[in-house]
Amino acid sequence: MTLFLAAMLPLQLYLFWRMRGEINGRIKHPVARRIVLFSAAAFLVLMLVPLAWQAFLGRSTLGTDIFPFHALFIASYIWAVGSMGCAVVLLMYSLFRDANPFWRHDTSSPRPDFGRRHFLQQGAGMAAAAPFVLSGYGVAMERRRFDIDHFTVPMDGLSSNLANLTIVQLTDIHVGPFMTAEELSAFVEATNRLKPDVIALTGDFITGTPAEVDPCVETLAKLKARYGIFACIGNHEIHAKADALLTNGLEANGIHVLRNHGVSVPVENSHLNILGIDDLHAGRPDLNRALRATQKEGGEAKILLSHRPEIFPWAAQAGVDLVFSGHYHGGQIKLGRHPKSLSVARFLTPYAEGFFQLPRAASIDETDKRRSTLFVGRGVGISGLPVRINCAPQIAHLTLKKA
To answer: Looking at domain 147-402, which CATH architecture does it have?
Structure first.
């Protein structure tokens, strides 16, 4: 959020400079002009306060469940994304206008086409307003409408016992001001309707306070899966010092929390190893310890839950077949809906969203060409700005298949 503010402030100053030019040009009365200028400056400051509060004090220090504060935060987030897009559009329009000879006044040149100029000005105005429309849609609509995405995962050497096994992943739930227990219930009900064999929960269950643990646990306790529900810890519960409370609550409700641990799950006449590690940055991850936990009862396939996907190269070398991760929310704001569409997450990690593959560790058998697969989910909640554009919340439903 601090980096976001640093990028936002120069654009806000540019936007105010443009607003001041419009106000000075349209309002001739000096007193009225000063009043409007002061009101515009006060509005911009007011829109920045919630973002600065969250960046430096944490959103949990202010009661965002109270309607006026919640409404102010929502308005601030819509303004933040919309105004930045608007400022960029206006800046590009100004650069184009200054560089284009069509806009320059020259008495020796032919008479300018004012109709065309007016058309371009109107187009620029509509383009500048578009980010506000998209931002409002992203806050009010898209972050609430989720997709259920179905995938098949070919897996080398899979027996008929594990073929067609179904796994549902929920990640980055972020129960808090922008994910209530009632909203989470819709995801739980949709997941149960899929009747999965296994459910994988890959961290960031809460947003920022221990008070969010109970409503999260009580809602997730209603999840149902044939062979069990398994979870790993994310960075948000560790930063909130609520990881132990969350772990105990989930375990008490039949959800297995794997903190550098692994279990061997019997499936028909076979076994599936499910491992989990702590968050790579905020926790104390130990993949080797998790692998050792399943050595006595080896399974024909290893599945790893890791909140952050950057473990993937090491997991592939260790012979893990499938890794589930999240953390990046698919970027939350993307230029298109495709998993590879440009987003901020693309600058932070090579594993922003979707499927990735790497060769498995070298085997004694040189003909062994098996590969490891990583799936990074978009998540169901939000973090930072409560905006999703071209990046709807996701329930991922995966079916294992013989390669």
So the answer is: 4-Layer Sandwich (3.60)
